[in-house]
């Protein structure tokens, strides 16, 4: 009987331990994986593309169950957009693109990103569309009448520029249609958005199955996604977002620095400062600081430009202008080279960035300011050159007459040696001279100077 009681007590203890383990482990089992929130605010370029790519990779490493990409963009560079889309398509966890807050838009490149995402959502009062690729480069005049579009919606144009535009249009249409078919969204409207620059408000986008849902804010979106099944890299993922913590990730110093460097205005200023720094270093060897600062600025400016769609004709004009301005400093032409350099610099700056996308143009005010500063520097250089030209020659042998010298050894009349302006010259005098006596040069016969005592009248 005692043995049965002991066995019963042991069973109770085991049951209690199991109950406690289940009780303690239940909250951990119920805890949902966190959600990462990334933000695209502004034109899509190398900086925020790098931020999104790294943010998705970090969210996957940290065990997040979902990435919400909050979007408000007028468009962006094609290469940057494709980097973001590649990161979404290869992501091991679902990505929800969300156009927010109210008044935001996902235009042009933003439309492609929404179509590529596992989940597409919009806030009320937002819009999507106008996905026509922007013409890049300097082409024919776009202000005149155009021929009627063909059956595919592309303008009829037999020129090379027209052929290139059609290729870009067809490529963009096929790209967005492929993304729509992958995600089960409205492929026909996506293609029309590319060919006809159509846009939709959030309510109509939901009706036409361009997006999956609408939500007023991020908490509402998280609540609406709870229990939703999403296909990720061939496997089905069920979202458990009801009690999931939401972690917003802001751009770090690297993104901010890259954003500054890829700003066309900043890149142009850095490159200009770099060239002038090196020019001042060449004009005053040994100053060191202008050369070091100039080299750093030039490299940073060139790095920023190589990430942007640069028109190489514009870059060539800028380099030609800088070469002319440097030539004015070293080979003064009294302003001719300098003014030509300013004109070439302004022309190159105006055509430097090879795109019409918003936020990627060079403001005329900046170009004018740089041109004025360059002109002022050139005017100062030309003024110095003119003053130097009018100045009497100094330091030549003919300038020694009238100079004061110091006798190096005593003479009783005849020839000797003297220090003239830091140089040792042979002298001749008709009067005796003593060592260290001060004499004046009164004539020159080749390498021989005629001198008399300084107090001689």
Topology:
Elements: H1 2-30, E1 35-41, H2 46-61, E2 66-72, H3 78-89, E3 95-99, E4 105-107, H4 109-116, E5 119-122, E6 127-129, H5 160-183, H6 187-196, E7 199-201, H7 202-207, E8 213-214, H8 218-224, E9 229-232, E10 235-238, E11 246-248, H9 253-261, H10 264-283, H11 289-306, H12 312-330, H13 336-350, H14 364-390, E12 404-407, E13 414-420, E14 423-429, E15 438-445, E16 448-453
Parallel strand pairs: 1-2, 1-11, 2-3, 3-5, 4-6, 5-8, 14-16
Antiparallel strand pairs: 6-7, 9-10, 12-13, 12-15, 13-14, 15-16
Helix pairs in contact: 2-3, 2-9, 3-4, 5-6, 10-11, 10-12, 12-13, 13-14
Q: What do these coordinates show?
A:
This protein has 457 residues and is of the alpha/beta class. The chain folds into 3 domains: 31-254, Alpha-Beta Complex (2-enoyl-CoA Hydratase, Chain A, domain 1), CATH 3.90.226.10; 262-390, no CATH class; 397-453, Beta Barrel (OB fold (Dihydrolipoamide Acetyltransferase, E2P)), CATH 2.40.50. Helix content is 48%, strand content 17%. It contains 14 helices and 16 strands. The radius of gyration is 38 Å and the shape is elongated.
List keywords for this structure.
6-stranded parallel sheet; membrane; NfeD_membrane; 17% strand; 5-stranded mixed barrel; NfeD1b_N; 457 residues; Nodulation protein NfeD; disordered N terminus; transmembrane; alpha/beta; single chain; 2-enoyl-CoA Hydratase, Chain A, domain 1; OB fold (Dihydrolipoamide Acetyltransferase, E2P); 14 helices; 3 domains; elongated; 16 strands
Multimerization status: single chain
Domain count: 3
Strand pairing plus helix content: what structural class? Answer: alpha/beta
Proportion of residues in helical segments: 40-55%
CATH topology of the largest domain: 2-enoyl-CoA Hydratase, Chain A, domain 1
- Terminal-residue CA separation: 147 Å
């Amino acid at each position: 009987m005692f043995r049965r009681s002991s066995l019963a007590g042991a069973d109770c203890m085991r049951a209690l331990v199991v109950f406690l383990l289940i009780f303690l482990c239940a909250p951990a089992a119920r805890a949902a994986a966190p959600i990462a929130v990334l933000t695209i605010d502004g034109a899509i370029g190398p900086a925020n593309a790098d931020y999104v790519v790294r943010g998705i990779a970090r969210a996957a490493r940290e065990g997040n169950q979902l990435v919400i990409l909050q979007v408000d963009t007028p468009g962006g560079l094609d290469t940057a957009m494709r980097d973001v889309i590649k990161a979404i398509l290869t992501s091991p966890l679902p990505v929800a693109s969300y156009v927010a807050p109210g008044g935001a838009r996902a235009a042009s490149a933003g439309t492609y990103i929404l179509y590529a995402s596992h989940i597409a959502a919009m806030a009320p009062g937002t819009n999507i569309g106008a996905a026509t690729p922007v013409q890049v480069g300097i082409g024919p005049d776009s202000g005149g009448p155009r021929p009627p579009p063909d059956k595919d919606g592309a303008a009829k144009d037999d020129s090379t520029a027209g052929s290139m535009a059609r290729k870009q249009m067809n490529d963009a249409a096929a790209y967005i249609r492929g993304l729509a078919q992958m995600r089960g969204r409205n492929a026909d409207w996506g293609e029309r958005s590319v060919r006809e620059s159509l846009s939709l408000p959030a309510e109509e986008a939901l009706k036409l199955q361009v997006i999956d849902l609408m939500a007023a804010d991020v908490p509402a979106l998280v609540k609406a996604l709870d229990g939703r099944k999403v296909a990720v890299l061939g496997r089905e993922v069920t979202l458990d977002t009801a009690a999931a913590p939401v972690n917003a990730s802001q751009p770090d110093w690297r993104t901010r620095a890259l954003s500054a460097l890829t700003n066309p205005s900043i890149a142009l200023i850095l490159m200009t400062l770099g060239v002038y720094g090196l020019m001042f270093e060449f004009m005053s060897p040994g100053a060191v600081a202008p050369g070091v600062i100039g080299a750093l600025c030039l490299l940073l400016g060139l790095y920023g430009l190589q990430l942007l769609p640069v028109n190489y004709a514009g870059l060539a004009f800028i380099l030609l202008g800088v070469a002319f301005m440097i030539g004015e400093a070293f080979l003064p032409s009294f302003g001719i080279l300098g003014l030509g350099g300013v004109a070439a610099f302004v022309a190159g700056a105006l055509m430097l960035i090879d795109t019409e996308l918003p936020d990627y143009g060079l403001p005329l005010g900046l170009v004018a300011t740089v041109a004025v500063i360059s002109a002022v520097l050139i005017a100062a250089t030309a003024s110095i050159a003119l003053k130097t030209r009018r100045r009497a020659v100094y330091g030549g042998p003919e300038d020694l007459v009238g100079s004061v010298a110091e006798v190096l050894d005593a003479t009783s009349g005849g020839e000797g040696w003297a220090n003239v302006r830091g140089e040792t010259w042979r002298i001749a005098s008709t009067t005796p001279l003593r060592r260290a006596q001060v004499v004046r040069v009164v004539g020159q016969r080749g390498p021989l100077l005629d001198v008399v005592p300084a107090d001689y009248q």
